[in-house]
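TL;DR need structure tokens for one chain.
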Amino acid sequence: MAKRSPLAPPPSFGYPPADMRAVIQRASEASVTIGGQVCGKIGLGLVVLLGIEDSDTAEDIEWLCGKIARLRVFNDDDGLMNRSLADVGGGVLLISQFTLHASTKKGNRPSFTRAAKPEVAIPLYGQFIDTLERELGQAVQTGEFGADMKVALINDGPVTLTIDTKNRE
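>> reply
TL;DR here they are.
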């Protein structure tokens, strides 16, 4: 059997090509609690649930962070979504969420084999935080990777978007 290059993406095993996924919710306020302690909190801003796969790259991180930072999902004076986080002085609450890569194709119990293992996901999650903070020019509030988190938010609008780096839409 031929060896696969360490730079080559892992085989897809019949799944679509890999993508970093984000569910983005406009919030008037949000927080994350771990073990009864609030560890991240924002007022007006975005809650970003982030799913990472093994083959995600720095290019995926750069593209997605840029997209999040420049999303115009906040209302202007005419009630149109024309303002970005920077325009409204909003914050970001970023939560790692491996379940965004759940497969429910077979049976009723989700499979999470497409989600990156911690040894891959944790460094990429850290890189995502650093890149998003650089793009926004401010600190990003976070949960804790792998922790049992309670996320509370008031979804404003409601406005909820899904973005993945494969489709880039």
